[in-house]
């Protein structure tokens, strides 16, 4: 297949994304407005007949003092990753990005390599059989993903560092997802473990009400988020980031981003953000108060979001990042434990890949990032 690549308009890019069953929320044109500190470009691949067959959002981060850029395609581009002629897609992209002043390219193919069903992981934890997901026999393996990895290596791409659970600007290799397609809501609820079902019931009995919020409720979100950041020891994003996210994403599509609040006796005890692209729904950010945890607002809010995702016709509810460790002493173990209760699946993506267009500057960036 003969492919050509050029810059496309946001409208062309969005029309292409809308024609797909799903794509990452980081590959919609409006994500460029969320990441306002990066320069952006919309790329399109065209076949011989002139039809748009692939698209990618590129974010450019400038190096201090010189006009050279890191070009980043988070969870993208949206192309045919299993095409045996993958070079036809990636070589024109590298040439174009080099012309734009990129010294290094980072991308994240949205390709799952392995999946583990919740019972398999629970069993491994209970029997202390494994210290990491990689040591547990997968419930599903995608052979073509291994071929993709090999092909990328041969082309000179280098596998990036594991993104942990996806805090910051590096995307997670491991995520936790609840499949919704071809299941009833009753079936999804039955898939929860006993503790989750009990906690959902507890929240209902206590009178926890989950409501959809709007832009004006973002300051309430921010207070809970800052409490969570202090409790869990991470640096919170400012309120302006979430306001920008809301405005950018919902201007592009009025149902792209939602805010949920779990309210008890007139007080918001938990809040979450949800992102929607086609049939893929993400639980994006979550926050909760330090008090009244016994009324289980976090379980109530997740169940409401899953039900709403199901009503939208989504095929997957994505709880985003988890760590790959099954060690109970690992600081991210609580995250996988909480998400396991939904009865979904852990999924491993092929991870992020780097192509150094200028090896010296690429190495300098590596050193700089490791010192941050």
Concise description?
Belongs to the FemABX family. The protein is α+β, with helices and mostly antiparallel strands.
Walk me through the topology.
Blueprint: E1 4-7, H1 10-18, H2 31-34, E2 39-46, E3 52-62, E4 69-73, H3 87-99, E5 102-107, E6 112-117, H4 118-126, E7 140-141, H5 143-154, E8 158-159, E9 174-179, H6 185-191, H7 194-206, E10 209-213, H8 218-232, H9 239-252, E11 257-264, E12 267-277, E13 280-288, H10 297-311, E14 316-321, H11 333-340, E15 345-349, E16 353-356, H12 359-371
Parallel strand pairs: 4-5, 13-14
Antiparallel strand pairs: 1-2, 2-3, 3-4, 5-16, 6-7, 6-15, 8-16, 9-14, 9-15, 10-11, 11-12, 12-13
Helix pairs in contact: 7-10
Keywords:
nine-stranded mixed beta sheet; Acyl_CoA_acyltransferase; Peptidoglycan bridge formation glycyltransferase FemX; alpha+beta; FEMABX; Aminopeptidase; seven-stranded mixed beta sheet; cell wall biogenesis/degradation; 372 residues; peptidoglycan synthesis; single chain; 2 domains
């Amino acid at each position: 297949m003969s492919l050509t690549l050029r810059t496309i308009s946001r409208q062309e890019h969005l029309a292409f994304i809308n024609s797909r069953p799903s794509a990452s929320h980081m590959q919609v044109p409006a994500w460029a407005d969320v990441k306002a500190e990066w320069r952006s470009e919309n790329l399109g691949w065209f076949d011989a007949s002139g039809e748009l067959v692939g698209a990618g959002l590129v974010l450019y981060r400038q190096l201090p003092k010189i006009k050279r850029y890191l070009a980043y395609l988070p969870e993208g581009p949206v192309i045919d990753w299993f095409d045996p002629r993958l070079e036809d897609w990636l070589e024109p992209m590298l040439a174009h990005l080099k012309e734009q002043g990129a010294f290094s390219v980072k991308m994240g193919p949205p390709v799952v390599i392995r999946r583990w069903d919740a019972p398999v992981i629970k069993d491994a934890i209970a029997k202390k059989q494994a210290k990491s997901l990689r040591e547990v026999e997968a419930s599903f393996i995608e052979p073509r993903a291994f071929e993709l990895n090999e092909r990328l290596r041969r082309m000179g791409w280098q596998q990036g560092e594991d993104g942990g659970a996806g805090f910051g600007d590096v995307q997670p290799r491991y995520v936790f997802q609840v499949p919704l397609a071809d299941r009833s809501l009753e079936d999804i609820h039955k898939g929860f473990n006993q503790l989750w079902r009990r906690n959902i019931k507890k929240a209902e009995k206590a009178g926890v009400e989950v409501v959809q919020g709007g832009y004006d409720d973002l300051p309430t979100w921010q207070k809970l988020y800052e409490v969570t950041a202090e409790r869990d020891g991470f640096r919170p994003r400012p309120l302006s980031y979430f306001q920008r996210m809301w405005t950018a994403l919902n201007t592009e599509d009025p149902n792209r981003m939602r805010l949920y609040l779990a309210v008890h006796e007139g007080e918001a005890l938990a809040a979450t953000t949800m992102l929607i692209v086609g049939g893929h729904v993400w639980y994006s950010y979550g926050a909760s108060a330090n008090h009244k945890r016994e009324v289980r607002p976090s379980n109530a809010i997740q169940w409401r979001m899953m039900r709403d995702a199901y009503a939208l016709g989504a095929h997957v509810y994505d709880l985003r990042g988890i760590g790959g460790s099954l060690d109970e002493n690992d600081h991210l173990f609580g995250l996988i434990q909480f998400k396991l209760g939904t009865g979904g699946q852990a999924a491993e993506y092929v991870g992020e890949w780097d192509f150094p267009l200028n090896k010296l500057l690429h190495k300098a960036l590596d050193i700089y990032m490791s010192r941050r």
